Amino acid sequence: MASGSRRNAYEPSMRDRVRALVALATVGVGSAALPGTARAADTGDPITVGAGETYVVDTTTTLGSVTVAEGGTLTAPDGYSLTMTVDGVETGSALTSTLATSTTIAPGTYTGDIVLTVAEQNLATYAGVTFPLRQALYIGADGAVAAKSATSALVGGTVTDSAAQGVSVTSTSEAFDGFYVAEGASYAITDTTIGFTGNGRCDFVGDGAAVVGTGSGTRLVVDGVTVSDKGVVRSGLVAEDGANVVVKNSSIQCLNGVLPSDYVFGGGADMLVVPWRLGISGNVRATNLIGTGTKVTYIASSIASETWGAFSTDSVSNASATAINCTISNLGDEGYGSFADGNVTERILGCTLDVGTYGTIIGASNSTLYYGDSTRADVAQLNTDLELGLTDAELTALPVQSTTVTSQQFGVMWHGAGTLHISGGTVLTTAATTFLDKAVRATITVDGSEGAALDPGNGVILQVMETDNPGSNAGVYTEPTDDPVKDTSWDVSAGHDTDTTASFTAIALTGDFYNAMRTGRNMVLGFDAATVEGVLSASESRHALSTITSAEYAQLGHVTNTAQPVVNNGVVVTLDGGSQWTVTGTSYLSRLTLSADSAVAAPAGSTVSMTVDGEPTAIEPGGDYSGAITVTVS
Q: Is the separation of the CB atoms in 308 and 331 below 8 Å?
């Protein structure tokens, strides 16, 4: 009979046997040392678990056949996890229920070269929920830890305490990781292929991820690795809790899975789908960065999600997310390229973004986003600042590229306060609005001196509006029908720390700018050595539907504008450095300031005029006007 017995408890000597295996396995030389521990008990005898029976496997075992009847349980002792591989493929494990954190071997008959691995649980906690993670290889401070690894899932190649090379990892079940690098370890994964099919459980701890790098002092380099995942929250790579993860010359692609039919949306540790109030759907993020002080950098790599998100950060503080010369995409018709959440600095340099809904979502206060070129000076500086470890040869081989963003809908959306810098030859081409600000402080600087350009398909460059976020996943957005009430304490002619501010330098712009806020928030626009052709105005915005539920999530953010006088939504415009505003339609402002060499003009064949508080007023070079300003063309 195979090692194990039908009982609900296990002998104390089990722990001593596992520790003995660890001592043998952590020698750490060659690919044979670690996989060899999977054959501690080699009986070949089949295991059959009947209905209503519980079979406890108390040591790692190899055999040729396993049968689990419906209602039968094949498990490991308390404090341990059980992982099965068949012919080197991790398979058979299923979460015990939709939001359970543990797995069991699903009913069925399994035949082949079977390894049942009994490993110490790798416990990870997020939002008060603890997840017992399983992984092919756990790397700790001193190298590979066989006691926490299902090494029979590592096929081919070489695995040591410091690196894995040429390895293949395949999973067809649920909540299993490939590589888990933690405890301040330094590790490299190169020329490796990872393919997972089946749902994960929580992408905030990487439960189900192909690769996880976690913990202060941990350094993980991923080079020449291909990840192909398909499943709910079955992420390609998760960096967390102070780790520094560097990904080079790699490809990560994650496709949606099948959501359990009984799943009811939950936040935090139970978030298996993107909240619909972001205006998108999907159930897997290709990558995720979380925690304090975490750094992740992708170089010359491809990151793709089907929908939801490709390059994500969530619940972070003092973090850094960088992509250099990468392709970032949504393979479906919705989703975001990147998400900047919390106090994160996100740099997208020399990248190509091809996205469904948003180039980037800025989701929380103090986020800073850069779209720019991968100049040699900037990349060299990041190599030092982020401790990327790129050699001189690698730096030289990286071409200087500009960033291009092509979106089927929006460019950048703010539902949390944050700052955007655009420079170099960056080009944003969007079917809808370029910049969409939902009632938060947005700070935008665009330097067009090296060719940066904005091309909004709907003709709107900046839309400031009240949020249409219903507040919860069970909520409903209802368009207000009453007129906004004037707040006499709000100064519509001045800038405030909470305002939306956009500055444009040395760029030619064609498009409209609307402030549709009902409550106090000004749109402060500055143009320096720039030209802008369009409407700059306070407005009333309207959705196509007055009521939006989860079924109409795609309507969020899409509004039309009617220009109207300022109430609490000041429009403060400054033209400097020889700038010119060509007015294409009636515009309502609260302040207009021109330098001596700047001008307001009308299209050819038309004339422009202005009233201030109802009085006709000439627009003169060097003028500074405030009040109820109406600029018209005729």
A: no
Return the number of other C-beta atoms located less than 10 Å from residue 1's C-beta: 8
Report the distance separating Cα 462 and Cα 481, nearest Å.
23
CB within 8 Å of 496: residues ≥ 6 apart: 520, 521, 522
pLDDT of residue 44: 75
* Chain segment 494-527, per-residue pLDDT in tens: 999 999 999 999 999 999 999 999 999 999 999 9
Q: Would you state the pLDDT for residue 43?
A: 62
Question: Of the candidates 441, 414, 444, which has an alpha carbon nearest to the alpha carbon of residue 525?
Answer: 444
Cα–Cα distance for residue pair 350/205, rounded to 1 Å: 30
Sign of CA dihedral 296, 297, 301, 307: positive
Q: How far is C-alpha 61 from the chain's CA centre?
A: 39
Query: What's the CA gap between 484 and 185, in Å, rounded?
Result: 57
What CA–CA distance (Å, rounded) separates 199 from 233? 7
Neighbours of 14 (CB within 10 A): 17
Secondary structure class of 162 (helix, strand, coil): coil
Task: For residues 216 and 244, give the distance between their C-alpha atoms in angstroms, rounded to a whole number.
Answer: 8
pLDDT over 60 at 29, yes or no: no
Judge whether residue 33 has pLDDT over 70: no
The residue type found at 25 is A
User: Residue 441's CB: how many other CB atoms inside 10 A?
Assistant: 18
Structure tokens at 123: 């416990």
Q: What is the dihedral of CA 497, 357, 311, 200, to 10 degrees?
A: 120
Look up the pTM and report it. Answer: 0.93
CA 297, distance to chain mean position in Å, is 13
C-alpha span between 58 and 82 (Å, rounded): 9
- Alpha-carbon span 338 to 360, nearest angstrom: 5
- For residue 477, give the nearest of 541, 412, 387 by alpha carbon: 541
Closest alpha carbon to 533 in 549, 510, 514:
510
CB 171, CB 205: distance < 8 Å: no
What pLDDT, on a 0 to 100 scale, did the predictor assign at position 32? 31
- Rounded Cα distance between 51 and 73, Å, is 8
3-state secondary structure 367-416: EEEEEECCCHHHHHHHHHHCCCCCCHHHHHHCCCCCCEEEECCEEEEECC
The two three-digit tokens of residue 572, written as one number: 């403060």
Distance CA(208)–CA(221), nearest Å, equals 20
At 275, list the tokens. 């909240």
The pLDDT-based confidence of 144 (bands split at 50, 70, 90) is very high
Separation of alpha carbons 508 and 498, rounded Å: 27
- Share the mean pLDDT of the chain: 93
- Residue 377 main-chain phi, psi, to 5 deg: -65, -45
d(CA 61, CA 246): 36
Pull the structure tokens for residue 460: 């709107």
Amino acid at 333: D
